[in-house]
Amino acid sequence: MIVPLNSPGIRNRPGDPTDCVARMTGKKKSAQASVEAMYRVFTVPEAPESTLSRIDQNISGNLTGFLQEHIVAVERDLSEVEKYFADSAIPEKPIFVSEQAQFLLDKLVANSVHTASPSFIGHMTSALPYFMLPLSKIMIALNQNLVKTETSKAFTPMERQVLGMIHRLVYQQDGAYYRKWMHDPRHALGAMCSGGTIANLTALWVARNRAFPAEGSFRGLHQEGLFRALKYYGHEGIAILVSRRGHYSLRKAADVLGLGRDALIPIDTDDENRIQIDALRDKCLELQRQKVKIMAICGIAGTTETGNVDPLEAMSDVAREFGAHFHVDAAWGGPTLFSRQHSHLMRGIEKADSVTFDAHKQLYVPMGVGLVVFRDPTMASAVEHHAQYIIRKGSRDLGSTTLEGSRPGMAMLIHSGLKILAREGYEILINQGIEKARTFADMIREEPDFELVTEPELNILTYRYAPARVQQALAAASPEQAERINMSLNRVTKFIQKTQRERGKAFVSRTRLEPARYGHFPCIVFRVVLANPLTTKDILHDILEEQKELAGVPGLKDEMDILYQHTEAVLGGPVAKRA
Hints:
This is Glutamate decarboxylase. By secondary structure, the chain is of the alpha/beta class. The chain has three domains: 46-112; 144-407, Type I PLP-dependent aspartate aminotransferase-like (Major domain) (Aspartate Aminotransferase, domain 2, 3-Layer(aba) Sandwich); 428-571, Aspartate Aminotransferase, domain 1 (Alpha-Beta Complex). Helix content is 41%, strand content 12%. The longest helix is centred in the last third of the chain and has 25 residues, at 422-446. It starts with 22 loop residues before the first strand and ends in an 8-residue tail after the last helix.
C-alpha cells in the first residue's frame, strides 16, 4: 500500500527541490518562488526517499498494483469530478511537489479509466509492455524535437528506420530498396504523426495535391488553391469514396482539406460490413459522368465498429481504373501482417498508395502516435514545406513533409517494441487476439439468451442480450413487429451496458449497427475488442454472467415486461412472467 504523501515523516524529505525554499510560518511550511528555487527545480534530481521518487518506485515496481489500488472501480459522475478542476485562476504562489502529487493521486488518478485492466474490453486500448514506462522516461528526459536534426540528431535516423520497417512490412521490398531510400534526404517513406487521424489527413493531403499538379500556367493546387485547380482541370467537384464503416477522421480530413464533408461519399457495405465493389464502381462511373474528380478511394483494414476488412485487392483495381489515389486505413488491422496465419486477410494492402498505422493500438505503444507510409518515396514531396531558419531543402529530417511541426521522439518507443517483441512476438499477440475473439463468439453462441450480431474477422465482435424466446419471435416477426422488439432490445442493451460500466467490474462498449437480417433497422449492440493479452476466458465468462444478472435487476423490469409483451404478440403465447 502506498503511504499518503502528506503523512508525517514523508512530506518534504531532505532532497525535495522545494525543501530549500520552505519557510516556517507557525507550524506549517509553505513554498515560495525564488530564483534559487527555479534553478533547483531544473537542475536538482529528487532524492531516493523523496515523495516523488516513492511514487516513481511504486509505479515502476508494480504498475498493475498501483493502478488497481488508486483507480476507483465504481464510476463517479463527471459533474462531480469537474468540481476538482473548477478554478480557472493560475495560482500566484507555488505549492510543494508533494501536495501536487497527492492531488493527482486523489483527484486525477482515482478518477481515471483503468484501460490496462483485462476486463476493460470495450475500446482499442490495452495493457502496455512493462518496458514502455522506463523507456518513455528516456524519451521525455532527452526532449528531442523531430522537426529538425538540429533538435533531434540520432532520433531522426531512428524515425526513418521505423518508417522503413513498417514500409517493408506492408510493401515487402528488398534490402537494396531500403538502403537506397530509407535515409535519402530528398525523399521520405512516410510520416510520423500523433495518431491515425493525422495519418489519414496526411495521406489525403498528399492525394489532393497530387491530383492537381502544376501544369502549364497552373502552379499546382498547393500554390493556387482548390478553386483554381478545379477550374483549370475542368472538374465540377472532387470526391473521396469510402465504405459506410469508414472512420470519422476521414470526414475531418475532407473538412480540413477544404473539400467539404459532402465530398466524402459513403458506399454501402455487404452483410459482413465490407464495401460493395459493384456499388463502388457504379458510384465512380456516376461521378465521372458528372465531371467530379475522384481524388481518393479509401479501404478499411479493420473497421472500428466490427473489425472487418474491405476487399482491398478489388478496391485497388477500381482505384487504378479511375486514376484515384488508393489509401488504406489500417490503423487497427495493419499489425495483422505480422501473423503468417492471418496476414492473408490484408491481401491487396501492398497495392495501396498509402497506409495508416496506429502504433498506440496493436503495436502496444503509449498514446499517441501513428504513422502513414507511402508506396512511392516521391509522394511526400507533394506536401513539402520549407523555412530558411529550420526546415531547409536537403535536410535529412522529416519536418518538411509532416503536418505537425514540433514532434516528440515517439518513434523510439515503436522502435523498442519492434526490437524487443519482434515479428514473432507481435505474431503471437495478433494470433491470440483473433483466437480469443473466436472463442468468445463460441461462448456467446452457446448462451441461449445472447445473440452474436457480427462474427469476428479480426479481434472485434458485437453481440447483445436477447432471450431465446425473443430471438424466436424475431425470426417469425413481421417488419413492424421486429422493429418494436428491436426498439425494446435497444433500450435493454443500453441499460445493461451503462450499468455494467458504472459498477466498474468490467467494461464493454456499445455501438449501433444496421443488420441485414432485421431489414437494416438500427440495433444497439455490445462491442468487444480483444487485444489485451491479459484477458482470459474466465474474465469473458464473468462478463456474460454479469450481463445476464443485470437483465434481471428491478430497474429494468418495466422494459423487460414490454419486451416480452412484444414477443408474445408474435408467438401468440401468454406474456412471460418474470421472477
